[in-house]
Amino acid sequence: MTAARASESTEAPPPGRTAAPEPDTAQLASDLRVVLGQLMRRLRAEHRFSISHGTVLGRLDRHGAQSVSDLAAAERVRPQSMAQTVGELEAAGLVSREPDPSDGRRALVDLTSEGRVVLGADRAQREGWLAQAISQGFSKREQAILFGAVELLRRLAET
After folding, report:
1. pLDDT tens, 92-115?
2. According to CATH, what is the number of the domain 47-157?
3. Rounded to an integer, what distance in angstroms lies between the CA atom of residue 89 and that of residue 85?
């Protein structure tokens, strides 16, 4: 635990308030799993393609060309599974493979022009729904809490 976190957990509550009870981490984990599952199903309904396809397309868009093994490691899946996903995306014309200029034995996967267009349209649809749900369903204070929660969830996903 960092010094900042240690001080957060030992700070006295403001005058007139009692300390919040210690969270039950097992219950929190269960509740988080259920809620994230519900959110993922809702987002999946907004997708034009599977989550695994969208994840690979998004990663390529954000980080540029990568090998199948690099994509697999980043997404924490078996290289064989990633090879299948990349093959499906390649067959759909959304990605292409080119020899790695620094190592001709490897191939780099990258988005095609069509892949960029499809990904952009998919993002607009998904993010449009999500942005609208956030702006219309949450107060400015709640939106700020969600903003902070994104970083916490990112850290959790990286553990």
Report:
1. 999 999 999 999 889 999 999 999
2. 1.10.10.10
3. 6
